[in-house]
Each structure stands twice: as structure tokens, then as C-alpha cells.
Amino acid sequence: MRSHSNSAPHLTALDDFNGLCCLLVVLIHVLSLGVTQADHSSVQGAAIYVTWLLALSAVPAFLFVGGMKMGLSLTAPTVPPYGPYVLRRVKKVYLPYVCWTVVYYLCFLPIGYVTGSVGEFAQYLWFASLSAQFYYVVVVMQFYLLRPLWGWMLKHIPWQAGLVLSLVVMRTAAILQPQLAQRWSWFGPYQGRIFLTYLLYWTAGLYAGALYHKLLRLLERKWLRAAAVVPVVIYAALGCVQYVTGRTAPGLELWKIASNLCFIGLLLCLCRFLAEKEGWLRRALAFLHRASLFVFFSHCLVLTIVTECLQKAGITRLSLLLVLRGAAAWLLPLAAFRLWELVVRFRKKRG
Fold it and tell me: Which residue among 209, 214, 224, 348 is least enclosed by CB atoms within 10 Å?
């Protein structure tokens, strides 16, 4: 597939996209308490669940933007060598994950969440199961390591066939994984941590990056943006019915995929709009992008500690718990990262 751009530029819109997805990931874990504790028949419970359900699109969106950046890179005149590329990904993504796993483990040790054995720690590290968001690192690293495959795919498989093939493989993997876990107990921890589980979102981003200028023209069509809202609304309604009644609607998984892709498209349109903004909003979005990895890794630890403190203080009202959890999970990591930036800047000035 030929590149439709002369280079793989640093795109502000994709940085904003990444930052907003990070906020949505935090929202998922903030609302998880409400999803499990709220009355399923109440308006509050339904509102919490629908918001949580739509926020789950953040994970496919993260993978989409990762694939998009790779598509831009692979169709540039000069493609970075594979070895140095992988080393940069390990340094930027996997090594921070290892460090944060150590931090979480040490913090969980005094409160009895972990036992302190080397074998237990190694298992948590391998399966990325110590905190809810860690599994993403294992998944995205598989996509990074398979970069030669994605380069071959862009050259030899048209986007239409590539997306259909990816959808078939992804759905097949989703069906087979529970069956394999039942047959082989050792496979259980790998469910949801194999790249095939999210294949369509990565390849959609891959082709979107390779055909970036065509994608921009597509996103300019107002009727298409309006149409993209429909699958999102339908999936939210079906999900709400399932939450209230306990009955799964036929074809819900396919509506989920359609909703995720449409949500990604709408979010990309929003980010293209935001990329043109200047002043305080541009500075805030740029800061959010810089802080996103720190927020991603740290927010669940903040949630765990804050929630335990709130419950020990006798705060049990669900709405208040969710508000305080959200304030802590968003504001504390951002404040800590800003403080770190100021300290680094101060040391550079003194040096």
C-alpha cells in the first residue's frame, strides 16, 4: 500500500486523542465500584452502567491510535529499523510497567493484598494481573513486536480485505478462548491478553494511518458523523437493558464492535477540532498528553488507597464515594506529575 503522506508527522490530534483516552480509562475504574454496588433497577445504576459501558471504548481507541501511528510510520519514506524501534517501545512502555508493578506490589504488601513471595510477584508480572489496567501493556507490546507483519499487511492486503479478515479472526478468538480455558486450565490467565482479542481495532488504526488523508476527507462529512452516533446509542440502550433485566440481546457483541469503531471516529473528529485551539486549552491538552502514561499507571493505586481510607472513615454513600474517587484518581496523579515537572525544571535551571 502506498503512503498518502510525505512523512509520518507528529500529529497534535493524536496526542489529544491519547490524553482523552487516558481520562476515559480512569473513568472506567472510578465507576467500577458503582457498577457492582448500584441497584440495577434504579436510574442511578443505569446511568452509571451506561457511562461505564461507553468509557470501555477507551481500550480499543488506545489500540486504534497506536496502530494509526504505526501506519503513518510504516508508510513514511524512511521507516525506523525494527531493532531500535522495539528497544524504544520496551524503554517507554514495558520498563515503566515493570517499575510500576514493583511499586504496586510493595504498596499492597502491608495491607495484605499480596503474600510477598517471588513466585507470586513473577506471576503477576508475567500475566499483568496485579492491577486492572496492566493487561493493556502486554497486549500492545505484542502488536509492537509484530511490526514486520503489519508492514507486510499494508503492502499486500487491501484495507477492505484486511478489516474483514481481522474481524473474523478477532471474533473467532473471542469464541475459542473460553473453550480453551475450560479444556486447559493453564490457558485461563491468558484470556483477554492475546493480541488477537483486539485485532480489528489495531488494523483499523493501521490502515487509517496509511490512508490518513483519505480518512480526513471522510471525517469531514457531517452526515457520516451523525450516522456514527446511531450504533453508539443502540449499543448503550441494549447494554442498559441487559444490566436491568439480566438478558443479553442477540448480536450484542457485534453492536459493541460497531459502537467502538464509531466512538473512535467521533473522538477523532473531536480531537481534530481541539487541535486547532490555542491558549489555555492547548496548554492543558499538551500537559494531559505528557502526563497520560503516569496517570495510566498510577490511578488504580490511588483509587485503592483512597477508597480504603474513605470506607474506613465511614463514607459509604455510593454517589459521594464515586465523586471523591474520581476527584482523587484524576487530580492526584496530574498534580504529582506537574510537581515532578516543576522539580525537573528547577534542577535544570540550577544546573
Answer: 348
Nearest one of 336, 322, 346, 325 to 38, comparing CA atoms? 322
Per residue in 35-58, pLDDT (tens digit) is 999 998 899 999 999 999 999 999
Rounded to whole angstroms, the Cα distance separating 310 from 114 reads 21
Q: What is the pTM of this model?
A: 0.92
Q: Quickly tell me which residue has 511490526 as its cell.
A: 147
- Least reliable range by pLDDT among 91-95, 119-123, 151-155, 187-191: 187-191
**CB hemisphere CA count around 164 (13 angstroms):** 5
Rounded to whole angstroms, the Cα distance separating 237 from 235 reads: 5
Distance between CA 45 and CA 34 in Å, rounded?
Answer: 7
Instruction: Return the SS3 of 313.
Output: coil
Closest CA to 258 of 276, 287, 232, 279: 232
Evaluated on CA atoms 332, 306, 136, 100, the torsion sign reads: positive
Backbone torsion region of residue 251, taken as left when φ is above 0, otherwise alpha when ψ lies between -120 and 50, otherwise beta:
left
Instruction: Give the mean pLDDT of the chain.
Output: 92
| Residues in Cβ contact with 267 at an 8 Å cutoff, skipping those fewer than 6 apart | 17, 20, 21, 57, 61
**Quick one: cell of 195?**
493480541
- Cell numbers at 94, concatenated: 514495558
CA distance 30 to 34: 8
pLDDT tens-place string over residues 181-211: 899 988 888 888 999 999 999 999 999 999 9
**Gap between the Cα atoms of 108 and 303, Å rounded:** 13
Q: What percent of the chain has pLDDT over 90?
A: 79
C-alpha dist (Å) from residue 31 to 28, 48, 57: 5, 7, 14
> What does the block give as the cell for 16?
489529544
